[in-house]
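TEACHING EXERCISE
Course module: macromolecular assemblies
Task: Read the component lines below, then compare them to the predicted structure of the full complex.
Student: A.B.
Group: 4
Components provided:
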Amino acid sequence: MRVFKGAQIIAGTAVLALGLAACGGGDEAPNPATGGEGSAAAPIVVEIAEPQHELVPGNTAETSGAEVLNALFIGLVNYDADKKPINQIAESITSDDQTNWTIKLKDGYKFHDGTPVDAQSFVDSWNYTANGANAYEANYFMGSIAGYAEMNPVDPDGDGPQAAPAATATSLTGLKVVDPLTFTVQLTNPFSGFPTMLGYTAFYPMPKAAFGPDGKVTAAYGESPIGNGPFKMAKPWKRGVETRISLVRNDDYAEAKAKVEAVDFAIYTDLNTAYRDLQAGNIDIMDQLPAEVIASAKAELGDRYIEQPSSGIGYLGFPTKVGADYAKSPELRKAISMAIDRKTITEQVFSGTRVPADDFISPVVAGYRQGACGEACTYDPVKAKELWDANGGAQAGAIELGYNADGGHKEWIEAVANNLRTNLGATVEPKPVEKFATILDDLGADKWKGLFRMAWIMDYPSPENYLKPIFAANAGSNYSGFNNKEFEELLKKADSAPTVEEGIASYQAADDILLKELPYIPVYFYQTNGAFSSNVKNVKIDPFERIEIANVERA
Amino acid sequence: MGRYVVRRLLQAIPVLLGTTFLIFTLVYWLPGDPIQALAGDRAVDPVFRATMREMFHLDEPLVVQYGYYIQGIFSGDFGTTFRGLPVSTIFEGKFQITLNLAMTALVIEAIVGIGLGLIAALRRGKATDTAILAFTLLLVSIPTLVSGFVLQLVLGLQLKTSTGIDFFPVAGTSEGWRSYLLPGIVLAGTSIAYLTRLTRTSLMETLRADYVRTAIAKGMPRRRVLGRHALRNSLIPLVTYLGADLGALMSGAVITETIFNLNGIGRQLVDSVYLSENSVVVGIVTVLVLIFIAANLIVDLLYAVLDPRIRYE
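Instructor-supplied answer key:
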């Protein structure tokens, strides 16, 4: 590459003469893999999509921004190989009643600007995220803390003419700083899995320097966040302009220092393009791969190819209360579930980037039981047909399969439709809709009668997150209308269990009810398919689909 | 001439108002709640939804929303995306990249297209001519998607891995002008074909004209006949085509930008349409309209330069 430097300058002048300013984005970072092979200063390069917001913990609820923040910040807890929370900044997280929690911090952690990571830095950050006026995407994570409702007044008539009442508070009453290294959290309801939430991006602390004189997080902080993690910003990142985010090692880090000196996050819009850059040695790590290259990547990369379960689940859902006849009957729902050939769909349609689902709880969290779904999720066309006919399936009318046409769902929905036609002898109508939001709007207005595709990615690694937000009676994302007293009781019991482990047993009992009633049919679990170049080694991806960047080493 | 330019610019105002309102209305009528679209598969939090709707005036009627938008523009505020990125930042970064790409394509197109057309016209009916015509046919029939991936794979990746020559980057803008070469070639492909054929036809016509025959007859050197008389007079349709093509190249670069990971306006436009981000879609389209208008004006002014008989008052 260096060879061409001279030519570059000459031609660069020619380009300028044509009225083109130098290339737009201040994107002049030297190409790492080619520019300085073997040199110690070349950063390793990680592929991401464009983060949707400025790099602030409370406003980051998607994986790309979280990938960067994960290098800049560490949280109260981390997760071990069994996906259980282990204390990181926290010395202890304790509660007697699962409602009032006391969090003690270890001494010695510092932000990149040298200020200590204290109780106040957590409370400030959480309060800011919880404030509805800031419209932060991770706002709902604070919903379980006392005082959230006062900060986020609900509009009494939805989108109607009445305005929402003004917020009556700007901080959470449930958060209290006891001393610099201790604070207490009061929840609105008992939740034994609270510690599992705390490793998520939304719960990272922010230093005093984040806030301007008006109390708002400054624009400068969003471009160059000051964190407490193994890496710090090398220079501010101009969102929408620059396609590389450059980080350097934080040498003043309280834990073991990161193995590499610098990391660049390179923004790609197309995974195929990124994969070719990986093959060319221009980038080092990808935490997702395009389906087309999976087969060749396995062969070509060998142990540099990563495949592990991810937290996503794909479902087919039923409006169980207001839907068509087949949506209202648990037996017919089971018959539909048994008529779907999950194995063939995941292998053929998804090229192995999905695996057949057999539980409502994902394999990435403690509490997943392999094969929990049993008969209902096992392909058995004969039994399915028997069950379908015995419960009046023939009279239930045409089965509608709703999906959003903009998300690459057509192929697998068509495959399911074929399964149902062949195995149940039913009329099946796949029903594409422009946007997923349209289906959700219709479901909210009780206008959607047929099946609809649905997916869920966890917020925190607790079985609770796969049950309560989707199937509890009042939950925001309960689109099936599922309402079961026993289920609610079991959730309550699990939430107030004295330990995470004891809670899991009750969550599993609640899970069993879902598996019997099948308001949704679990169809597939998502997989994480990643790859890395021969420049690096020891690349691991955690259940949040974040690369454990501090442990990555140069090969 | 100054008055002509002013008049043309004044004519642009109603065109701009018309297009912005049209686009604004179209985006407004897109189905689905844009705030729900932000949250993806998850139910959007009602408080978040209310705050966002208020912030972006989504509860107001169409005309009021448009009014807010135009009011903002006159005070220099082009609005922000739902994710808080000012539209002016998008202009600053992404437009530059798309402009670089379109200009690279335009230069490649002009040089290769006019060059090939010139050769074909001079070798009319010979093997070279036939070969060039066949080549243009090939160019038109290969979709950008195919040529993009193939060139990227062969010149970007395989050339490097097999020979070590690392001249064409696979993707991105980190290599300065070289980053734009491959995508520029891909983007220019179809236009090269049209321009070649246009040049060939136009030049062949001029070469048959009386004044060219006269020039040859009076013993003028061939090179001078070709340059001053024939080519210059054939340039008018070519300049018209190139002018119109600049706008087309800028607005049609989505696929090329995606394949080569150029963070330009194409991808942004697609994303913003999906999210019903009115201010972004209208903002980008407005600037594209301005570029079209400016390019057409420049083309019209060039007519006068190429053909002294044309005068603007």
